[in-house]
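Quick illustration, no need to memorize.
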Amino acid sequence: MSFGLGSTVAATQNKDVELPQPPSDSVSELSFSPKANYIAASAWDNQTRIWEIGPNGQSIPKAAIQHEAPALCVDWSLDGTKVLSGGCDKAGRMLDVTTGQQAQVAVHDAPIRSCRFVEGPGNAQLAVTGSWDKTVRFWDLRQQNPVHVYQLGERCYVMDSSGPLLVIGSADRKLHVFDMNNPSTPFRVIDSPLKFQTRSIGCFTVSSSPGFCVGSIEGRCQIQYIEEKQLSSSFSFKCHRVDKEVYSLNAISFHPTFGTFSTAGSDGTINFWDKESKQRLKAFPSVGFPITSTAFNADGSIFAYSIGYDWHKGYQEHRPGSKVAIMLQSVNPNDIKPKPAGIKTKR
């Protein structure tokens, strides 16, 4: 299956705004508050930083969480009052943005690669951490020990959530699908339909049928439905390829109101897609460096992306002092709105 590539490359990105005081090393993950225009970024320089974004795009650094090793993941609580950050120091650290207090709330036997806040049974707010120790741990922040530990067959590489849906990708290419109404056991465990290593996951935000999107290091994307009656509608398509060069699909972000989504990769490009009509809505030119993470804000009016080395060529290709930035783009609704099949974007 392939997407219709009806749109042309956007002429310019020079209106994008760069956040002040960026990390000194690559960003591992971006996350917007679900309640206000605050953005958090975890980074390889051992810090997770938070900025407030003003109505005119001006940004103010507000706080930081200090790790003892690279910070690999970050997420906001559902009420927007707390930030959870995990890293190579094997610790999950939480900042209460209303009080400024910080505390360690999670621990693993190896680096924490991914984290999410989710709502569990009885509207309980849980923090979920996935680690290279091959476990996923569910934490009630009122308790010291995890309320549940799920054993993976291999290291946790990525996770995402939306509503009751939580999806975890592991190093053995397994996809672990949880219904958070019953977090003690996965709803379904499947092999990734993609043949190469899982790099990114994004859960549908607006859809009549629940599901998620998976990206691989091979520049391929899978639209995966989870209900039995919809499984046959799942499909994959190629993206982030230039001639014969194949690039990793590093980030997938779903728009909170339209249900369309973005992909970004090691080729330095961003694309907006509509899974329903199976077409690309917008293609942006390469920024000249890999894009490591992306995020939409709560109402979908701002799109953030981070520029930096993504380690896809190993440590030997890392160049100290290379470009690191977090950029903000004002979203044009016409670029991200769903379009009926066969309707091509105008120049």
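DSSP finds one helix and 30 strands in the chain.
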